[in-house]
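Take a record:
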Amino acid sequence: MKISQTGKIIIGILTIAQLFIGLFALIWFFSTFLPVIIGGNEAEIEQLLMLSIGKFIIMAIVLGVLSCGVLIFYLVHAGTNKYISITMKVIWILLLIFFGSIVEVVYFFMEIVPEKSMTGRIEQN
């Protein structure tokens, strides 16, 4: 699959963005909810949940849609990559499914950024 330089930049931004959005969501969750839950005041917990749950749900939906879209792109790219063997395609697809975002970053720098697949070059040697 031939991808233009602009396409590679957009894919890279989306790949990295999902990591930062997920990290932001975790930090926000623990810094907002944990102190109130530890405090134990039920009125504060209920008020905080009512005010913040909508924002959290919207952020989770955006992150879920972004992650699914990026994962689908990487699965299609790994399956149609003509520079690697069938065995490596299966390995990449399994890694993408089971380890998600971390492997997507590795795949981006090994398979999409270079003109020719790094895995393909390793297999040829």
Observations:
- The mean pLDDT is 88.
- Residues 5-124 form one domain.
- The first helix runs from residue 5 to 39.
